[in-house]
Amino acid sequence: MSFPAYEFYKESGVDWLGAVPEDWKVLPLHRVIRDQRRITYGIVQPGKLDETGRYMVRGQDYSTVWGKPETLFRVSDEIETPYKRSRLMAGDIVITIVGAGVGNVATIPEWLDGANITQTTARLSIDPDKAYSQFISFVLQSSIGRRCVELYSKGAAQPGLNLEHVRTFPVTVPSLDEQKAISSFLDVETSKIDGLVSEQRRLIELLKEKRQAVISHAVTKGLNPNAPMKPSGIQWLGDVPQHWEVQRIKHAITSIEQGWSPQCEISPVENESQWGVLKVGCVNYGKFTAKQNKALPAALEPKPELGIKKDDLLISRANTIELVGSATVVESDHDRLMLCDKLYRLRMDSGKLLPTFLCYFLTCELAREPIELGASGASPSMKNIAQSVILELWFASPDVEEQAEIVDAIRERWNAITSLIAEAERAIELLQERRTALISAAVTGKIDVREFTSCERQGASRRPVRATKQNEAK
Q1: Is the distance from CB of 20 to CB of 444 less than 8 angstroms?
Q2: Could you give the domains of the chain?
Q3: Distance (Å, whole) CA 384 – CA 320
Q4: 339-392 confidence digits (pLDDT tens)
Q5: Strand pairing class (334-338; 276-278)
Q6: Are strands 245-248 and 318-319 parallel, antiparallel or unpaired?
Q7: Whole-angstrom Cα distance, residue 106 to residue 91?
C-alpha cells in the first residue's frame, strides 16, 4: 500500500527524528498533559486481592492491546483507597516503566474507567484541547517512543524509566483534526495487523496444547495403542499399560537435595573457570539455560558438591504457580555452576529410570494438577513446593528400553511442533515490525493518510497518487 508525502517539511529540532510536516509542532510530552499531577505511579504493593474489587492494571496486562477482563487482578478497597490519585479514566494512556515490557503503551478503554495502576506502570492524562489521546498513544508506540525508551531506560537488574524522563519525550503535534484523521487510519490498519497477530498467537497456543497432549499420552499410556491396560489405583492417573510399574517417585530415585543461595554478584559468570550459583530461571519446562546464574563473589568459598552434572533432574522449588515444579534434565557437566536453594536436584539409577522420562512425566498435564495443588504461599507471584510433594507423587513407567523409545518419540514430535511454533513466533515478530513501521510513518508525517481516511469515511476507494509524492510504508 502506497501513500503520498506532505508537500512541505521542516526540521523537527530533534536530531534523530529528522524532518516533519511544515505546520506540525514537536513538543515535550508534558506540554500536552492535562494535569501534571496525572503523570504518576500507582499502587506500591498489590496487597489483598478481591474478586469484586477494583481492577488493578499491571505492566504485563497489555502490550498495545488489552487482554480479557478476567485476566486482570482486582484489589480490595482497603488497599486501593489511599492511591486514589492514580485511578484511571477512559482515554488515559498507561506506559510500563519497569521490567521486560518497559515502554509498552496502551489507551484505557471505557471498561477500565476507575481502575488503578501498580508501581510498574505510569498514567498519562492528555489535555483534549491540546492533543488527541489516541494519537499520542500511537506516537509513544512508534519509533519515537521506542527511541526514547532506549535512551532513557536504565537499571542493571531490569530496565526502567524515570517519570522526569517520560515528561520530556518529544511528541509530534499536528492539528487536532489531523490527529484524529491519522488515528482513525491507524485504528483500522493496526486492528487488521492485531487480528493477524491474534491468529498466530492462537495457533501457538493450539500447538503447545498439542505438544502437551503428545507428552501426556506417551508417558501415561505408552506408544502402543493396543497395549492391554490396568487401573493404576490413582484416580488422577487413571489406567496405565498392564506391564508398567506404578510407584511413588521416592521409591524410584537415589537422592533429592536442594542447594545454596549466598549473596552473589548481579552478573553471571564470564567464563567456565568462574564459580556461579544457578538462578531458578535456569529451569523452564524441559529446557536448561546455563547462563541463568549469578557469579559467586571471590570472598566466598565454593561448594563443589553442589556442581551440576549430566543427567541431573532439576525441579523448580519456588516460582509462580505456572512455573513452580517445572523440570529439566541437564545434558552436560557444569562443575562450577552450583545448585541454588530454590531448585531440587533428583538423581536416579539410569539403568532403571531415565531422568528424561521422569522429566517428561513431571511436565505433563496430569502431574501438574497435584503439583499445583501441593504448592503453598500467600503471594500469587511466589509459590513453594515441599520435597514431600515431589517424593509422594505417583507415576507409572515401563522398563528402561521402552522408556528410551518413548523419550525418542516425544523428542521427534516435540521438535516438529516446536519448529511450527518458531515459525508462528517469527510471523508475529514481522507483523509487529510492520505495525511499528506503519505507525511511525504516519505519526512523523513521512506519509500523508488524510485522503485515505476521508475516503474510508465516505466508503470510497482512494484516488491514485502521483508517483512524485509516493512513499512506501514499510
Answers
A1: yes
A2: 1-22+174-222+399-474 (no CATH), 25-173 (3.90.220.20), 240-397 (3.90.220.20)
A3: 8
A4: 999 999 999 998 999 999 999 999 998 998 899 888 888 666 678 899 999 999
A5: parallel
A6: unpaired
A7: 10
